[in-house]
TrEMBL record:
Protein name per UniProt: Type-4 uracil-DNA glycosylase
The protein's enzyme class: hydrolase
Single GO term (MF): 4 iron, 4 sulfur cluster binding
Biological process terms in GO annotation: DNA repair
Protein species of origin: Ruegeria conchae
Occurrences of domain Uracil-DNA glycosylase-like (ranges): 123-269
EC annotation from Swiss-Prot or TrEMBL: 3.2.2.27
SUPFAM superfamilies, per the entry: Uracil-DNA glycosylase-like (SSF52141)
UniProtKB keywords: 4Fe-4S, DNA damage, DNA repair, Hydrolase, Iron, Iron-sulfur, Metal-binding
Phylogenetic classification of the source organism: Bacteria, Pseudomonadati, Pseudomonadota, Alphaproteobacteria, Rhodobacterales
Gene3D superfamilies, alphabetized: Uracil-DNA glycosylase-like domain (3.40.470.10)
InterPro entries to which the protein is assigned, alphabetical: UDG_Type-4/5, Ura-DNA_glyco_family4, Uracil-DNA_glycosylase-like, Uracil-DNA_glycosylase-like_sf
Amino acid sequence: MVGATLCHGKVYSLSLGQKLVRLRVMESGLDHHTARALLEWQIELGATEAIGDAPVDRYALPDKVSKAKKPAAAEPAKKPEPVDAAAVAKQAAKTAGSLVDLRAAMEAFDLCDLKRGARQLVFADGTPGARVMIIGEAPGRDEDREGKPFVGRAGQLLDRMLAAIDLDRRENVYITNVLPWRPPQNRDPKPEEIGMMKPFLEQHVALAKPEVLVVMGNISCQAVLGKRGITRLRGKWDQALNLPVIPMFHPAYLLRQPQMKRQAWADLLDLQARLRGGS
């Protein structure tokens, strides 16, 4: 509301629409017509009430404007509790009573980001219940496309290596990987990914019931034995998951380093001797 500052004096009543505005002016040298013209000019500018000489404390006046009741401030949303993916995996794996159940549990497990970038789960290949169980690292492009571990050039080399000591995945070898989903650009699996999926691997071994484990490559050694350094570990028998374990070079590594095939052959002969009852 606009106010016009006036002094005590004569009172003039001016009509503004339906309002009657009473304005007071002091007696001064201004004649009646000049004073009235000034007041009418102020009203045209929007003045609707007169302001006197005495100050008015507007803050002390009662608030006649009804204020809308402010809504209660919403409580900040609570952050979700962090999920222990390894614990969830352990519980899911524990409930699997067969290889079929285990595969279904792994298919339903959504806490590993690798699953979102892979075509499909790579579960296993070969003969369940075989004496020898081979554990590789993670699926590559060919494995991701076909849904089986150790296919492509590395898989073909593995089959030739096994055939040299009378083993065959179609008869007496069972094969899986530490991770069932392909890492992007075939990068090495991260420690947290290995730890997350390890309960499934342990249950896989328990359900497959092999006599001997063959861990191929550094990632497999890390997951099963808790050790890395395949050139130092290869060919030396160890113990894990209540089974004898022999680390070997991964076939993909042998394709890049063919001069290491001599050591791989020695490890295969050691495996053959173990299966035949040798020391």
